[in-house]
Every structure is written in structure tokens, then in C-alpha cells.
Design goal:
The protein has helices at 2-26, 30-34, 44-63, 73-77, 96-116, 129-151, 216-224, 236-245, 282-291, 299-307, and strands at residues 174-177, 180-184, 200-204, 207-210, 253-256, 259-264, 267-270, 308-309, 314-315, 362-369, 389-396, 413-415, 424-425, 429-431. The protein is α+β, with helices and mostly antiparallel strands. The protein folds into 2 domains: 2-151, dinb family like domain (Four Helix Bundle (Hemerythrin (Met), subunit A)), CATH 1.20.120.450; 161-437, paralog of FGE (formylglycine-generating enzyme). It has a 4-stranded mixed beta sheet. A 3-stranded antiparallel beta sheet has the order 1-4-14, covered by helices on one side. Strands 5-6-7 form a 3-stranded antiparallel beta sheet, with no helix packed on it. Helix 3 runs parallel beside helix 5 (96-116).
Length: 437
């Protein structure tokens, strides 16, 4: 019976991911689908066929032992390591009709396989891991495609209701996270990916962390104080990049008279002061934190603030507990096309009272990407190990564009410190002064 329930959950998760993929690819015509809207991103049609190709490789061929559906050359076209995003429009890709037919064919065969295959006997099958990996992969590409939609210039094609707004509710600016050990990572979450493993104890000194993410209004204060023009606040490489790229505001912001406006999925609107700032690079986040007399939290600090329960002394899966996210706790899954206002979702707060650690905006941390003690690349090195090193900065917590299947208190994301097209914001931390801890 447990296997039946797990298979039902897998089928539901696969369907949710595919329905989202369809929304994102059917919202535009075929000309838009094959266009490259930014050299940072693939054409949407590449992402569409790529999710089908990965599903075929891992589930039909590896798990199911099936023969390839299409000629072997197709695998090479959709190998993300073979072709940089900027080059993908020049490839002989499947056209929109062929891509839709291909992913539909793959999914039909996968659902047949799911009915028959035992979810045990191989590490890849235990607890449905291979299927969960494919669910997460498609949802990650859905978030990437949503970022492509944000970069697309044209009339709005996506819609969603607005997220909740917070009015006349106060909270402390900062929360004290007590010093001591906590369990970071996981060894038990069945669908956790290799870089989240294994669970290990980390000693974290006491620190203060912002109760909510940095808002647009907060960030405007940095801008108004000349933050973009003062090299004191910038990492040297960040200052070089700021000058070279001409950064003066978050991506998609512009001036309209005396007012800052933003472009959001085709809509031009006044920048809402009460939303978390989004589309800022690590360098911008780091500069703001220095200007504010603070710093970005380390990855371990972020996870302790999100997961540690000082009463039970254990680490939860999520800030609110171990149960899966609900719409009352967090802004995930593209239910809305923007972050909720800062302070939203109080029932999703951590035991220490830190809010919006899951959903709304990815949060930059000060840490580089590396493996945990005892890390083992599985089931393939290219998921995370090949990116280890100082070139990538860690992001945690997910965004309004992240699905719950690809977001946990242990989930780790990373990107170059110059990247701004991702749905990233941040919150600040600081060391505890004498008498505070």
C-alpha cells in the first residue's frame, strides 16, 4: 500500500510539472518559442525537449532498459554540457511540433513504466528517487523558463493573482540565533539531491539575522545614498563588474520621471516598496549589506535560522515543521508572479521567528559551493560536483517561481555572483555584539 501511495504521489508531481511546462510553452507562439530572448537563456523550445530527453534517459532507458525513441544525435543536442546557452539557437533542434510530440510520447511511456516498476531493489529506485529527480529537474527548468519569460520583451502572456500584502503589522528588525551545534543537510529525505547529503553537525556561533528579506524600499535607501557610486561598499571584483556593466539599480528597473518603475512579465509598474528586492546580483547584495553595517549570512547560518528548533534541538525539514508547504505558509510554485510583501506568511516562520525563509525570493549567502564532509556524487557528477569551487555563490530558500518539489530547508542552489536574471534577493546578518548573545 505504501508503494501505491508513493506511485500516486509521483504521478501527481509529474503531472503538476508537465502542466506548468505546458503553460510556459503554450503561452507564446512558435516564433517566440524558438527565439532566444537573451544569450543567458536557451530558447524555450530547447528547454521543452531537454526535459523530455532527460526523462527518457533516466527513466525509460536507465530504469526501464528501453531503446532510444529518437536517433542518438538527439541526445547530444540536448546535453547541457555540450552546448552553451548562447549557441543553442544555431543547433538543428526539434521544432515545436516535434518537441511537443516527443515529450508527450516519453511521458506516456513513463507513466506505463511507473505502474509496473518496483520502487526498490536499486538505489536509483528506492523511494522513487529517479522519478523524484526527474520531477525536480523539470520544475527547475520551469523556473528557468519563467526567467526567460521575464527577459522576453513584448505584451504580457502570463497571469496570476497577486500575492498577499501585509498591512500595519510589526516585527523585530532582527532575530538572535543562539550559538551552538545544529544538524545541517540530510541523510533521510528520500528525494534530496547529492549536495544536500550527508547530514552533519556544524558549530555556528551566535548571530543576528534579519527577520524579513531586504525590501525594495530598503534598497532604494542604499541607492539614494549613492551606494552604486561608492567603492567602499563593493567587493573589488564587484566594483569592476559594476563599472563594466554600468549597474545603477536592480535588473528591470528604470526611471520614469522622479519614480522608479520595473518591468515584470510585460507589465511596467511602480516599484512596490514593501516587496523583497529581486533581480540583484551577489555583488549588489554584498554591497548593500556592507552599507547597512552588516553582512550576508553564511550558508550554515541561513540553514540554522531556517531549520533549528531551540526547544527540541533538532533540525526541521522546513521552518514551520516537517510537513510539506501549503499556500498559507509560503509563496511557491508560480501561484503568483511576484514576491509577497515582506512579513507575509507568519505561520511559515521559523521557531525563532524568522519569516519568508522559504519562497518569495532566493537568498544570496556569503558561501561558495562545496560538498559537505562525506559528500558522494550520485547519481552523476554533473549535477553539482563539477561546479564546486569559488566561482559560484550559494542561494537558499527558493522563490515564488520554485516548486515545492524542488525546495526544502536543505535544498542548495548556486550561480555566478554577477547573475541577476534569477529570482534572487537577500537578507542580512551580523555578528553578535557584547551582551547580545
Amino acid at each position: 500500500m505504501l508503494t501505491d501511495a508513493l506511485k500516486e504521489r509521483i504521478a501527481v508531481d509529474l503531472d503538476r510539472a508537465r502542466r506548468r511546462t505546458q503553460v510556459l510553452t503554450e503561452a507564446v507562439d512558435d516564433r517566440d518559442l524558438v527565439a532566444q530572448h537573451s544569450p543567458l537563456m536557451s530558447p524555450l523550445v530547447w528547454d521543452l525537449a531537454h526535459v523530455g530527453n532527460q526523462e527518457e534517459l533516466w527513466l525509460l532507458r536507465d530504469v526501464g532498459g528501453r531503446e532510444p525513441i529518437l536517433p542518438p544525435a538527439v541526445d547530444e543536442l540536448y546535453d547541457a554540457f555540450q552546448h552553451p546557452r548562447a549557441d543553442r539557437p544555431t543547433l538543428p533542434l526539434l521544432d515545436p511540433v516535434e518537441s511537443r510530440r516527443y515529450v508527450s510520447d516519453v511521458r506516456g511511456r513513463v507513466l506505463d513504466l511507473l505502474e509496473r516498476v518496483p520502487l526498490e531493489g536499486r538505489p536509483l529506485l528506492e523511494n522513487g528517487f529517479a522519478f523524484g529527480m526527474i520531477v525536480q529537474h523539470e520544475q527547475q527548468h520551469d523556473e528557468t523558463m519563467l526567467a526567460t519569460h521575464q527577459l522576453r520583451v513584448g505584451e504580457p502572456v502570463l497571469g496570476a493573482p497577486p500575492p498577499p500584502r501585509v498591512t500595519s503589522v510589526s516585527w523585530p528588525d532582527e532575530v538572535l540565533v543562539p550559538g551552538g551545534p545544529f544538524t545541517m543537510g540530510t541523510s533521510t529525505d528520500a528525494w534530496a539531491l547529492d549536495n544536500e547529503r550527508p547530514a552533519h553537525e556544524v558549530e555556528v556561533p551566535a548571530f543576528m539575522i534579519d527577520t524579513v528579506p531586504v525590501s525594495n524600499g530598503d534598497y532604494l535607501g542604499f541607492m539614494a545614498d549613492g551606494g552604486y557610486d561608492d567603492p567602499r561598499w563593493w567587493d573589488p571584483k564587484g566594483w569592476e563588474h559594476r563599472l563594466r556593466a554600468g549597474l545603477v539599480a536592480p535588473l528591470f528597473w528604470s526611471r520614469d520621471g522622479n519614480e522608479w518603475v520595473r518591468r515584470r512579465f510585460g507589465h511596467v509598474e511602480a516599484v512596490p516598496f514593501d516587496e523583497p528586492v529581486v533581480h540583484v546580483s551577489w555583488y549588489e547584495a554584498d554591497a548593500y549589506a556592507r552599507w547597512a553595517g552588516k553582512r550576508l549570512p553564511t550558508e550554515a547560518e541561513w540553514e540554522k535560522a531556517a531549520r533549528f528548533d531551540p526547544v527540541s534541538r533538532r533540525s526541521r525539514r522546513f521552518p514551520w515543521g516537517d510537513e510539506d508547504p501549503t499556500a498559507e505558509q509560503t509563496n511557491l510554485g508560480q501561484r503568483h508572479l511576484q514576491p509577497a510583501s515582506v512579513g507575509a506568511y507568519p505561520v511559515g516562520a521559523s521557531p525563532l521567528g524568522v519569516r519568508q525563509l522559504i519562497g518569495d525570493v532566493w537568498e544570496w549567502t556569503s558561501s561558495d559551493l562545496s560538498g559537505y564532509p562525506g559528500f558522494r556524487a550520485w547519481p552523476y557528477r554533473e549535477y553539482s560536483e563539477v561546479f564546486f569551487g569559488p566561482d559560484y555563490k550559494m542561494l537558499r530558500g527558493g522563490s515564488f517561481a520554485t516548486d515545492a518539489a524542488a525546495c526544502r530547508g536543505t535544498f542548495r542552489n548556486w550561480d555566478y555572483p554577477i547573475r541577476r536574471q534569477i529570482f534572487a534577493g537577500f537578507r542580512c546578518a551580523r555578528d553578535v555584539s557584547a551582551g547580545e548573545g
